[in-house]
Amino acid sequence: MLKIAYGTWYAHPLPEGHRFPMLKYELIPEQLVREGTCTEDNFFEPGPLDEQWIVGVHDETYWKNLKTLNLSPRMVRSIGFPLSAELVYRETFIAQGTIECCHHALAQGIALNVAGGTHHAYPDRGEGFCLLNDVGIAAHYLLTQRLARRILIIDLDVHQGNGTAVMFQREPRVFTFSMHGRDNYPLRKETSDLDIPLPTGTPDEKYLALVAETLPALFRSHQPDFAFFVAGVDILETDKLGHLAVSREGCRERDRLVLEQCRQAQVPLVVTMGGGYSVRLADVVEAHCNTFRLAQAMFF
């Protein structure tokens, strides 16, 4: 059975002006159940996250100041959300959801987190609506627990996975691949193991050709035994922040290519949702739901 991490904390309310991006976390599960792709049995609520996994990849001082709400005003501005104990608590549950997805993926081939993909969180700071790097935390967990030996992070959110790139720059067991918009946030890009910056207006044909060409080569060269996929739908032409020109059908095909590569290689896969900022929330929700539909159809 397809297992999906989702809990009441995922849709934690924010002050006016910050709520819109969070609504998708409620609407995605509702849509999947309403249409019959999933039932309530597909969803599990993560438990609390042990702090040892946070400080395994994040600086202890940063974590201490984050959980006690003692970050500097400048650091809070970089995060982009008003800081609160509830928001920090929410991030810990999402990261634990990604860890628990790892166990389901090892058993069944794939698992998905309704949230996550918080790839702008650096070891020593948060940025871009990301406080803790859930994929980074889960990758470290797998290596420490000897559940994986070589991990591939496939980050196809439209924004570079800058925090993840820095987090694993000295860890040869984790290969970071980011294909992202060249001309958008973050203005200063970091160095992943492989970066493919895309020019503004990149359409389906060019985008999908790069995915289809790159993934098999990465699997051959790195030979991962576990993979993470940050499946941001901010690549859509309707996205306010993305600046690419990928259709909803193109986004779905991108997901199919990633899932099929992992399925054929028999590499367990955890998928996190990443970003999505289209003007119409329905465009965001539908594109994200396509990822879950494909996982259900291809693996079960």
Keywords, please?
alpha/beta, His_deacetylse_dom, 43% helix, 8-stranded parallel β-sheet
Oligomer: single chain
- Main sheet: strands, sense, barrel: 8 strands, parallel
How big a fraction of the residues is strand?
Answer: 5-15%
CATH class: Alpha Beta
Order of neighbouring strands in the sheet with most strands:
2-1-3-8-7-4-5-6
Q: Characterize the overall form.
A: globular
User: Roughly how many Å is the radius of gyration?
Assistant: 17 Å
* CATH homology superfamily name: Histone deacetylase domain
Number of domains: 1
The average pLDDT value, as a whole number, equals 95
The number of strands is: 8
Structural class by SSE content: alpha/beta
What is the tally of helical segments? Answer: 10
Query: Which architecture would the CATH scheme give at its second level?
Result: 3-Layer(aba) Sandwich
* Uncertain segments: none
What does this structure look like?
The protein is α/β, with parallel strands linked by helices and 300 residues long. The protein has one domain (4-299): Arginase, Chain A. It is 43% helix and 12% strand. It has ten helices and eight strands. It has helices at residues 24-35, 51-54, 60-67, 73-79, 85-108, 134-144, 162-167, 204-222, 248-265, 281-299; strands at 4-5, 43-44, 110-113, 151-155, 174-181, 194-198, 226-230, 269-272. An eight-stranded parallel beta sheet has the order 2-1-3-8-7-4-5-6, with helices on both faces. The longest helix has 24 residues, at 85-108. The mean pLDDT is 95.
